[in-house]
Amino acid sequence: MTVTLDGLETRPAQVWGSVRLVPLVRDEPVPYLRLHRKVYEEPVSVVDVGDAVYVSFVPHAFVATWSDGDQTQAASYGARLLERDTGAAPPRMPVRFTRRMARKAGKDRLRFLPLHLAVEGYLALHFGGPEIAWEEWSRRAVAHGLSPRCEETYLGRQVRDLEDALRIFEIHPGQCGVLVYVADALASAFVVPHPEDYRALHPTLVEDLFGELIYIYGLLGAPAGDLSAPIDDTEIRSLDDLRTAADLRQEEWAAFHDEVMAGSLFDEDGSRQVVQHLHGFELSRFLPSFALRGENHIGETITDADGRVAYLKSFRLSDAQVKRGYLLRRLAEHDWRLGATAAALGTDKAALALRLERAGFGYLLRQDVLDHYRAQRVT
pTM, whole model, 2 decimals? Predict the structure, then answer.
């Protein structure tokens, strides 16, 4: 099933410095599903994901609650935001153990860690390492695979201008989402089922994860481009003419944004994995095809039976992260044989080995093999 943003309408962008916020509005909320935030006191989480352990900074979780479709008389009184404890911090850093990234917290609710579900999917990409003990791979690679896998991210409050933009700009009536751009690079998308959910969860964007590319763009302070389309005043004869021209410009902006600026958010050649079922809804994560020299986004969604997106969070991978995903995918496609993979990439084994080392995977190769390939390149 291809994920789309059908049912969400694009509104005029709001620009502050290098940050551009594009509001997404629904005519009607997605019925029978709500989101609220659960704040954690402990800054570090260790999540048991089965055959591996995932360690990360987790400031909060999202809790999805849903109701049966036949309970038409039920009324929702808005999203609930649990306040952070203001007590004194303990003298040591506590660590919280969580059983799964997403697990049932009752018959009508699901707790999951926002964005960490998507990041886990990226980190687990061919995590087991070589399936066949080819002679080039080290004992560590065969025994432990790619453990540990580490990736660096930045909090939203570290991205220049983002916190100010989120504080200053208004929230539109019916707004259920936003797309965040930094220097006109799509940084993330955030969608929820209900406008009240968005109002409650809007501040959490400063605690989201952002990649190196987005952080650097914010650090450079490159201003967002002027994408405004002026109205030809020579064609305006009345207020109706002005209103018609303004509506036309808004439609043109929405079409340009959806087709061009956000056109690479969902990768048709990528993969999607369903993680949990929520009584008519599906919680899934998606990975891109890791095409080089292009946008690659990972993310997670909750979709209804018609494929409509009720919840979405995305994360844009940096160029280095894309290259790592690309190399792992190509190795897996060729059963981790260096020769076959190198031939498919149009290079030789020595060049591929050094490419793996630059990507941070040099420890997977035997030291003598890596030294041999290094010597080949020098000579």
Answer: 0.79
